[in-house]
Structures are given as C-alpha cells and as structure tokens.
Design a protein that fits this description.
This protein is of the alpha+beta class. The chain has one helix at 45-56, and strands at 22-28, 34-39, 61-67.
Length: 68
C-alpha cells in the first residue's frame, strides 16, 4: 500500500509595485495669493498639472516639481 503524498505549496510571490511619484504644486491665484499642494495620484507631471487645474480652475501661474 502506498502512502499519500502531500503537495508542496508553492511559495506565494509578492508582486512589487513601484511607488507612484509625488509632486509639489506651487500656485499663484489671480488675486496674487499663493498656495502649495502635494499631488499624490498623478501618473506623470502633465497629469499632476491637469489635476491641479481641474481642482482650482484658472490660476495666474502654476509650477510643478517632483517631490523627494
């Protein structure tokens, strides 16, 4: 009579995703006031700019930089 053999479980492989980049946005409003935002859910710098503009509307100037 042969004994039953247990199947060896394959090791669970963790998939590693690179963290999404974070951006800092410096905004100057039409009235001259200013503010700084941290943008986390952007794919790239152009997407970060589009996210800020969609949230704030028209601004005088907008500078986007990669946050370290």
């Amino acid at each position: 009579m042969q004994g039953q053999r247990k199947r060896a479980e394959s090791p669970k492989v963790r998939t590693y995703r690179a963290p999404r980049p974070e951006y800092t946005a410096a905004v100057r409003y039409l009235d001259g006031s200013r503010d700084i935002f941290h943008v986390r859910n952007a794919d790239d710098m152009a997407d970060a700019r589009a996210l800020v503009i969609s949230e704030l509307g028209e601004v005088r100037s907008l500078v986007i930089a990669l946050r370290h």
